[in-house]
UniProtKB/TrEMBL annotation:
Entry's Gene Ontology molecular function annotations: 6-phosphofructo-2-kinase activity; ATP binding; fructose-2,6-bisphosphate 2-phosphatase activity; starch binding
PANTHER family per UniProt: 6-PHOSPHOFRUCTO 2-KINASE_FRUCTOSE 2,6-BISPHOSPHATASE LONG FORM, 6-PHOSPHOFRUCTO-2-KINASE/FRUCTOSE-2,6-BISPHOSPHATASE
GO BP annotations listed: fructose 2,6-bisphosphate metabolic process; fructose metabolic process
UniProt name for this protein: CBM20 domain-containing protein
Signal sequence segment: none
Length: 728
């Protein structure tokens, strides 16, 4: 029924004969549901051979049963899904003959299968049950569980953590040196190479040899001309992009008088500054889904990639992040984290470590003398392997690579100038300089270097290795030149997550902006992150996807065991927190945990299965055969063929889930205390893939079983994994 003039205090109702309502008593009339500002609807199901239905419309006050206004005219008669006679207007006389309200009436009859009828009734019955978490605020703490123990004695809930440890599927239990996981030289896989290491100077292209010859500092001017606009012009107020976290801007004076900008990070994340410099727009690129240089992503990342390809300089479509810094300043660790983050976002990213190239070319047992600035032979050898690594990275970019992380000290202007010459017209370079003035952190990093680096694997005497590395470090310090040229990001004393500075110069574009935002929120503070699915739900028992049902008996038992586990594992971690989705099965799983704040994240909700929500896969196959069989067609992007990109009708894909999880990842990186994440299978697959650095295409197939805790340990040695299975 439709009318724009129905007053808000009058609600349309239907009353009539036994088959439809069961009473001509207006007090028992059925209320119609409001579908829009002008439309009211009542749906009911009858068999095809139903008996004749007599009914009429009436208007009732919203908060009382009288007075009612019954429509004028004879009863309406419905037979076989069709109204007898015309679908006449419903006429109501509100105040005698002076105020008449006329409403259009629509009758729509659909044939409904018994299965659909049963599914509708099941959904109706489940929706009648009130949520058990209604009224629980988004942030809670010290929620005391019900007294007593159900589904098991108190003794059965006592946990010996180690007896529940199960093997992790991918990561090793030992510490892996990050540089060993980077790219290997391409020349190792070329035929016809017969040198001991597989790398020769003949592998270099002529353009690279020219850049190498120009890398002799004696042939380069001591002062490189850099043009930087005045801060008041380069960073106008309208060009600032401000985050909600605390940050301050001020100008700083460099050694040569060049002006720039620094951000004092303080407690929160800084505001980011967009450079006012503009580049010529060039667009001759094909924008199809399979085009090279396009990330495997959805949402903002995909939109930004399209915009960059359409409007940015061609070389800006490929980005090189060139690390700069003294040894033991966390360059490789930072590079590894950044590589992992960009890959997870969908950007084709590789990490090239020059130290690995050097060890393959010249061996791993080079003494500190090899790194002296006055050792011309050693300098040429180091520049050669740096050029080879850069050449490999550029060649990979020409084949479709998007972001290359070039990991080396790159501590002199002449080395950086060589790299810029090689990259000219091929990719955009951003220097990322890591600076640490905390001697305690430097000493810790040095000791870790001696313990883990292949450079000292054959040195049995730890103290001898320590002396050699400190001598190597002194050689670098004598000739170190801070970055003052080109586009750069400087991370100063940011490794512990408390304060520090982030300096940004000539940085613009979506991806560089995301990199800055990621770096300002990352640190090396060791802490565990615990990932677990909710306890078994009733929909898990029924084999239904999605939904928002409560826990089964087994799920409630797991919630109690999880609380005991958290209490024992985090008993000394008073600042830990519990994160859940907004669905009641995760909130109920967290309910027995006491002593820690609990935060509900909408971003942690299960993947939206759209119209398939609440169905089993057999029901989808039976009632949506075209959607189910779509998986069998060649080159399809359906769930069976490409689960990463498959989007449920009116729902989400895994790529959509990754996009909404980015704020969760940033906050997990920023947190300095342990976090327990209680979420859902698809969401935890995406989160786990980030920490384990798993390829995007594997995400939909990662095993995240029920009643299992995945502990991710983050710290200076990288990411380690441990699993606990509390229940079968």
């Amino acid at each position: 029924m439709e009318n724009f003039r129905i007053r808000a205090d009058l609600i349309p109702h239907v009353y009539g004969s036994v088959p439809i309502i069961g009473s001509w008593d207006s007090a028992k009339a059925f209320s119609m549901e409001r579908e829009s500002a002008s439309m009211w609807e009542l749906s009911f199901v009858v068999p095809p051979n139903h008996e004749t239905l007599d009914f009429k419309f009436l208007l009732k006050p919203k908060y009382r049963n009288s007075p009612c206004v019954v429509e004028e005219g004879p009863n309406r008669v419905l037979t076989g899904g069709t109204l007898e006679g015309d679908a006449r207007m419903a006429v109501f006389k509100l105040r005698g003959d002076e105020d008449v309200l006329e409403c259009k009436v629509f009758i729509k009859a659909d044939i409904v299968s018994p299965f659909d009828l049963a599914a509708s009734w099941r959904a109706y019955q489940e929706n009648l049950r009130p949520s058990r978490v209604r009224g629980i605020p988004d942030i809670t703490i010290n929620v005391v569980p019900d007294s007593g123990v159900e589904n098991g004695s108190a003794a059965s809930l006592e946990l010996d953590l180690e007896q529940y440890v199960v093997p992790a599927p991918t990561t090793s239990s030992g510490v892996v040196y990050a540089a060993n996981l980077t790219e290997s030289p391409r020349s190792l896989f070329h035929t016809g190479i017969s040198s001991k290491s597989g790398i020769t100077s003949n592998s270099l292209h002529s353009s690279t040899k020219a850049a190498l010859s120009s890398a002799d500092c004696s042939n380069i001017r001591k002062d490189i001309e850099v043009t930087v606009p005045e801060p008041s012009r380069a960073f106008p107020i309208s060009g600032m992009v401000e985050s909600k976290s605390v940050g301050t801007f001020s100008t700083f004076q460099k050694q040569d008088g060049q002006r720039g900008l620094f951000v004092d990070r303080g407690v929160g994340s800084p505001r980011l500054v967009k450079s006012a410099s503009a580049s010529a727009f060039v667009s001759d690129l094909k924008l199809d889904a399979e085009a090279k240089g396009m990330p495997a992503a959805a949402g903002a990342v995909a939109a930004a990639a399209v915009a960059d390809q359409m409007h940015g300089p061609k070389e800006d479509c490929r980005l090189a992040i060139v690390l700069v810094g003294l040894p033991a300043r966390g360059k490789t660790f930072t590079a590894a984290k950044l590589t992992r983050y960009l890959r997870w976002l969908g950007h084709e990213t590789k990490h090239f470590n020059v130290g690995k190239y050097r060890r393959l070319k010249h061996g791993a047992n080079q003494s500190a003398d090899f790194f002296r600035a006055d050792n011309r032979e050693g300098l040429e050898a180091r520049n050669e392997v740096a050029a080879l690594a850069m050449e490999d990275m550029l060649a990979w970019m020409q084949e479709g690579g998007q972001v290359g992380i070039f990991d080396a000290t790159n501590s002199s202007r002449c080395r950086r100038n060589m790299l810029m010459q090689m990259a000219e017209g091929k990719c955009k370079i951003i220097f990322l300089e890591t600076i640490c003035n905390d001697q305690r952190i430097i000493e810790r990093n040095i000791r870790l270097k001696i313990q883990q680096s292949p450079d000292y694997a054959e040195e049995p005497n730890f103290e001898a290795g320590l002396r050699d590395f400190k001598e190597r470090l002194a050689n670098y310090e004598k000739v170190y030149e801070p970055v003052e040229e080109g586009s750069y990001i400087k991370m100063i004393d940011m490794v512990n997550g408390y304060g520090g500075q982030l300096q940004v110069n000539n940085i613009s574009g979506y991806l560089p902006g995301r990199i800055v935002f990621f770096l300002v929120n990352t640190h090396l503070t060791p802490r565990p992150i615990l990932l677990t699915r909710h306890g078994e739900s009733l929909d898990n028992v029924r084999g239904r996807i999605g939904g928002d049902t409560v826990l089964s008996d087994a799920g409630e038992l797991y919630a109690k065991k999880l609380a005991k586990f958290v209490e024992k594992r985090l008993k000394h971690e008073k600042t830990a927190s519990i994160w859940t989705s907004t669905l009641q099965r995760t909130i109920l799983t967290a309910n027995p945990i006491v002593g820690f704040p609990k935060i509900q994240w909408r971003a942690l909700d299960e993947i939206n299965s759209g119209v398939c929500d609440g169905m089993t896969y057999e029901e989808i196959k039976k009632n949506m055969p075209e959607e189910y069989e779509y998986a069998l067609k060649p080159h399809s992007r359906s769930r069976k063929k490409d689960k990463l990109r498959y989007r449920y009708p009116r729902g989400e894909s895994y790529l959509d889930v990754i996009q909404r999880l980015e704020p969760v990842i940033i906050e997990l990186e920023r947190q300095r205390a342990p976090v327990v994440v209680i979420s859902h299978q698809a969401v935890l697959r995406a989160l786990y893939a980030y920490f384990a650095d798993r390829p995007l295409k594997e995400i939909p197939h990662i095993e995240v079983p029920l009643h299992t805790i995945i502990e991710i340990q983050m710290g200076v040695t990288g990411v380690q994994e441990k699993r606990y299975k509390l229940m079968d």
